[in-house]
Design a protein that fits this description.
Elements lengths: L2 E7 L3 H13 L5 E7 L5 H8 L4 E5 L4 H10 L6 E5 L3 E3 L5 H9 L3 E10 L14 E4 L4 E3 L2 E2 L2 E2 L10 E3 L6 E5 H6 L12 H10 L4 E12 L10 H18 L5 H21 L3 H28 L10 E2 L3 H6 L11
Parallel strand pairs: 1-2, 1-4, 2-3, 6-13, 7-14
Antiparallel strand pairs: 4-12, 5-13, 6-12, 7-8, 9-10, 11-13
Helix pairs in contact: 1-2, 6-7, 7-8, 7-9, 8-9
């Protein structure tokens, strides 16, 4: 397959200087691209001077992760896109196992490697770990990471397997599947747009996989810190967007109502820990969700009802109950 490794950059010259050398060194056979989201630092000048072999697409505006990739990928021709965060260190041979897996299994639309922490390389990283899952209420978690708890990698997830969603930090996706779905939903701006895209692909009967034979190391929170109230806003709002668009079983409005109540519980927890800006972020997320609800329902209708839904990777219980009531912090401990 013709492979294009594509990094989305916004004012990330420091990350490019730190991590691009590993990508250049270990990506033989692939085209290397940087989509620049209207950076105001010296990112483009640095690339042109230091890495003339890396091709550049310059977007006219910073439309966030979703629009940035959607706009930039229109100019890149390849069978397989590798969407790679700028704050990731790749390892020797990271491309081959996943490319081989996807060549052998054409029903796999997207795949991710093992994602470990750059700061503590013995542990999994929050964004992706060993593959993404979703519980019955729409809460996302990973093999190797449940909420804020990341596990130490002791080989417990060295089996490649089908999952529910692939991390956007390092997503291998067939270009035909990406473009057929019209890419990421730009209303998301950033965060969880990859989960929405994977869910749409699953609703077509496609498969999403995790490949343990490929490893990358992720800084995480490079553009937006994990503790940022803006990240809280985006995650709470975009999760509601995702459920509304893609949930195909049961009573949709009951599921959304239940999620709103659980979000209220999370806001109460923020209150007791005096994280007042995060409470406002949750309230703002709900307000914006209701403002955009008619648009999301139109998108849901347009997606239609698909009888070939692939539910592999959906956990049939509540991960909130498992984590906060039963105190289970490891994927292997789940009922």
């Amino acid at each position: 397959m013709k492979v294009a490794v594509v990094i989305l950059n916004w004012n990330g010259a420091d990350f490019l200087q730190q991590f691009l050398p590993s990508v250049v060194a270990h990506s033989d056979g692939a085209e290397l691209w940087v989509i620049d989201n209207a950076s105001t630092d010296n990112s483009v000048a640095f690339l042109r001077e230091q890495y003339p072999s890396v091709q550049i697409v310059q977007n006219e505006q910073n439309g966030g992760f979703a629009k940035g990739y959607n706009d930039g990928l229109k100019s890149i021709s390849a069978e397989l896109y590798v969407l790679l965060n700028s704050d990731i260190e790749v390892t020797p041979g990271w491309l081959d196992p996943i490319c081989s897996l996807m060549e052998q299994q054409p029903e796999i639309a997207a795949c991710q490697p093992k994602v470990k922490s750059y700061a503590n390389k013995a542990y999994f990283e929050h964004a992706g770990a060993a593959g993404g899952f979703m519980d019955k209420d729409g809460y996302t978690f990973c093999r190797g990471r449940i909420f804020a708890h990341a596990e130490k990698d002791e080989g417990q997830y060295d089996d490649s397997c089908e999952i529910f969603w692939s991390t956007g930090a390092c997503m291998f996706i067939r270009s035909e599947d990406f473009h057929r779905q019209k890419g990421f939903d730009e209303d998301f701006f950033a965060h969880m747009e990859e989960i929405d895209l994977c869910w749409r692909l699953k609703n077509e009967g496609k498969k999403i996989w995790y490949c343990s034979e490929s490893t990358v190391y992720h800084v995480g929170g490079g553009t937006l810190d994990y503790a940022s109230p803006k990240k809280t806003f985006l995650n709470f709002r975009n999760n509601l967007f995702t459920i509304t668009k893609n949930r195909r079983s049961g009573w949709l409005f009951w599921q959304v109502y239940k999620r709103l109540v659980l979000d209220g519980v999370a806001a109460t927890k923020f209150l007791f820990s005096l994280q007042l800006r995060h409470i406002w972020a949750v309230l703002s997320a709900h307000h914006h969700f209701f403002w955009k609800l008619p648009s999301m329902l139109k998108k849901r209708k347009k997606l239609g009802e698909n009888l070939s839904i692939n539910r592999t990777g959906i956990y049939p219980k509540s991960i909130v109950y498992q984590a906060f009531v039963k105190k289970k912090t490891k994927f292997s401990e789940l009922d």
